[in-house]
Write a structure and sequence with these properties.
Length: 568
Amino acid sequence: MCKSLSLRDCRCAGNGGGVFRADSPSGMTREFRPLASAGCPSYKSGFRFVLIRNASMAKNIKPRATDYAQWYLDVIAASQLADYSPVKGCMVIRPEGYAIWEAIQRDLDRRFKDTGHVNAYFPLLIPQSFLTKEAEHVEGFAMECAIVTHSKLQKGADGKLVPAGELEEPLIIRPTSETIIGHMYAQWIQSYRDLPVLINQWCNVMRWEMRTRLFLRTAEFLWQEGHTAHETPEEAQEETLRMLDVYAAFAEESLAIPVIKGAKTDAEKFPGAVTTYCIEALMQDSKALQAGTSHNLGQNFSKAFDIKFLGRDQKLQHAWTTSWGVSTRLIGAMIMAHSDDEGLIIPPKVAPTVVAIVPIFRSPEEEAKVKGFIETLLVQLCGQAEVDAAKTRSARNGIPRYFFDKAANQQILVDWRDARPGDKQYHWEQRGIPFRMEVGPRDVDGGALVLKKRLDRSKEIVQLTQVAPDWLRAKLDAVQQEMLDKARAFRDGNIRAAASYDELKKTLAEHGGFVRCHFIPNKEVEAKIKDETKATVRCIPFDGQGVAGKCIYTGQETTTQVLFAQAY
RNA sequence: CGGGGCGUAGCUCAGCCUGGUUAGAGCGCCUGGUUUGGGACCAGGAAGUCGGAGGUUCGAAUCCUCUCGCCCCGACCA
């Protein structure tokens, strides 16, 4: 294939190792190398290139290099994770996206139970007065609360419905539940024998954000919030850090997103917390994303809500509380950490579908042949009982699905739709399914199948005799590990040191990513730096403290090192 | 909330400047046929209160006013 063309019609996006990437007007990115010898009839300008490969064949996804923000939205649209709602700032989480949230919930909930927590549910509506009890808390959330002021609609003079039945006290829709939970804990906790209280809730919250972005920042979002009360400050601190560790382990093991654990500066901490800890992740565009937070609330909320208990010393004292949460934002993190120009890539541990089987046949005879082979394949992977059970299930979109792991809700599907195999390949590739299996007459004859790996788009021929649950599990685990390694290498390659403020500015401007430096946290200084660089202190990382150095801003001696980055 | 851009079929958009039959195209969707190992082709078909409201006009997708929404940038934030 000697396709040569003029780059006149393309915008050259970069050049590395003699390979040119170009964005064509149709939004497709292609890679070219210069053509050495002339003689092609379509010669137009002084340059000619040979098409090496289409770096992006995705018709409906803008390449990351062209427009990262649009790429993110295109990936969500193409993989049908979410859709816009008629209400500004809200999103509809579609089945494909919700299944990922369910996988996150299932995994995290197990980890919460393993650390002794129980689930409960507190209501959506909170008396407005509750919010005002903790001074910093009001200040932090007052600006983004949705308020319920009326209890009904009535027909007005012009026949149109108008709000009526004004409430005596307005209710706010929870932006978080510290206040109402504090109120309840005050009633439930009387004695040190009632402690610790270790409750979590899975729910929705609402923060009336100015600017929203699917998954990353929506007005309403789903999350979990853990709220605990303890007898001593040491226990509370231990709990705060324990849950931060749970989040970090979850992010790395299940989402394959390496994170940096650390503390927030006072400027960045949760309104009402004594100390906020966080896990920070790095996205492919070199911007940081806070993926989870854990707060030591000290006695701030127990004093505001009067959570008192009679201690072992017979004295009445305030409890020590914590709270911690992660949200559907994690899905945004997952997308931005792993996906590519072809579309979504889901880490196997949270993938609702782990394999998509694409049958290939021309005639009814070939179809029967391929069908029999696929059934054998499915029996080997999912068991005879599951294959039989699947026959009695309704198949969504006419696509039968088989449980590979029922407890983890992981399925294998067979795409029998009346479409061309190529279409099906792109279809499942865009949706980030970890593996695809291609089964055609040639494969059946050879007792094999073609296994295609989403992560690197590689393919290999696998003998049917090799195929077994453990084999697939090992394949999935290997991909999971590879994704984590890849993300970690990217993250590590994007942590740079700066010894001066000028160096910080330069590094942020040239590379983005995390910049580590000695710094004495200070609200005014941080605001100024943010103003000048758009970067904030993401955290005071646990690793690497205690080494003396000079604060990049004030020049004063300090042993505190922080990570700066532009963030979502 | 400030600045910029955009709202016409499910999606991407043309038409608007200069108002005038029945509002178009590509993709997608449906039907039939030929096809099928990385995005097929032919034929036929369904689909739009031109974001909404008001105004100007004999007549508005087109001009004017207001309004709503989306995207990008800033301030705010998990």
